[in-house]
Each structure stands twice: as C-alpha cells, then as structure tokens.
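User: Before I run my own analysis I want an independent prediction to cross-check against. Here's the chain; please return only the structure tokens and, at the end, one sentence I can use as a sanity check.
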Amino acid sequence: MKSMTGYGWAEEPGEERTVSVEIKGYNNRFLDITVNLPSHLSSLESRIREYASGKCRRGSVELWLRCREYGASVSVAVNKKAARAYYDAARGVASELGLSEPALADILNREGVLDVERNRDAETAYGFIKPVLEKAFAAFDAERRREGIHTQKDISVHLAAMEKSLSVVESFGSLLDEKLKENIKSRFAELLGDAVDENRVLAETAALLVKYTISEEISRLKAHLGEFRSVLENEEVLGKKLDFLCQEINREVNTIGSKAVMLEVSREVVNMKDSLENMREQLRNVE
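Assistant: Structure tokens:
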C-alpha cells in the first residue's frame, strides 16, 4: 500500500552542472501532475510528465527541476532596436535632469535587449537529468510506502472491529427470527385466545421474517469484508477498489440498521458505521 502524500528530493553535483529534483505529493481522486522547469529545459516537460505518470496512479504531484550550469556554451543575440529605444529614452531624461548619459550596462540589463540561449539538445539534457529524476522518485516512493504501512495497519484495526461487530450481529440472527415468531404467536393468542389459526400465524410470521430478517445482508457483508481484507493484504494499488467496496459495505450496514429490532443489533450497527467511517477517512490518502 502506498500513500498519496510524500516528499522526495535528489541532487547530483558535478564540475559542469548541478541538477536537483524535488517532488511533493498530495491527496487527489485523480492523477494531476505539475512540472516546473527552467525555461531553457521546457522542451522536456512532456517527457518528464510521462515519466512521472508511470510512477504514480493518482494524487496531486508537484515536481521542480533545477539546473545550475557552470560552463555551458551560450549564444547571445542583441535586439538593437530595443537597445536604441532604451538609450534614447534614458538619454532624454538625463539631459532634462542635467545628469550624465546612461551607461552601457544599464541598457544591456533592460528586458528584451539580450536574448541568451544555451546550446543544448533535448537528448543530451535528458541524459544528465534522468538519473537525478530516478533518485528523487525512489525517495518519494519510499516515503509513500512507509506512510502506507502505517495507514494499512490502522485500516486493519478498524476492519477487525467491523468483523467482530458483524460476528455479534450474526449471533443474534437466529435469535431474532425466534423472537419474531414468539411475538406473533403471543399477539394472536391475546386477541383470539384458543381460536388461533395456525396457518394464519405461519403466514404472518413469514411476512415479518421477509421484512426483518437480516441473514442475506449478513452473508453479503461477510463477503464484502472478506474481499476488502484480501485486497488490503495482497494488492499494491488498491485505493479506488477499496473505495468501491466501502460503498457496498455501507449499503449492507445501513440495511441491517433499518431492519434491526433488537437493541444489541442496533448497537453493533453503530459500531460498524464508526469503524467504516474511520476506514474511509484513511483511504482518502491511499493511492
């Protein structure tokens, strides 16, 4: 089991460059990946996004890649028209105020005057980025697994509590049926005395048993809990599947609660609902 929340970081220093990758994960029903790259590496966004989507199934994933280069060759283009416009404007203001003419450095630092481009192809760049990416995702995955282990243990505790409550409910199942039959017989006896029609009693008993018996719900709930435990213990990517099983479990628990005519059964239904809510809360963070 993996959590959707986690953090991963890796850095690879070198003589020519230092590359670092930082990853943060948050809860989300679907997969949403945000990639933040330096502008000169923007052509790699789709490739890095594809790599990240292969590592995560759902959740919000934010990735930052930073690259500090020390000796990369660059090409510089000068926008002469922009430089002339800045210079003329600055010189006019300087003349008006009686100041010295603007320095060259002031003009070159203006936006749009210099266009600097690093000479690099995408394959070369991805070649030195990928190992750092792999290390960062390994750290990210390890933390998500550690948190997932704690989440799995907590869910298992609440699942065991549900199974215990269901066992108690099941123990009252046959008693519930007998209690319904006795109540019907006693009411007929009070109303009709010795003139009780046995067939009528049986018919009324059957009708009430159909309305209040919970044997089918118990059977389905046991199957759902068994499937839930199997998925929890044997599958790695299980968040959506367990979400669906929780919906089925909730349906059966509610039906048992609506049919419950014994205080002992109602009490266990409340306990099962509480355990189920705790399980669902934990599952909001499971991949």
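Sanity check: Residues 147-283 form a domain with the Four Helix Bundle (Hemerythrin (Met), subunit A) fold (CATH 1.20.120).
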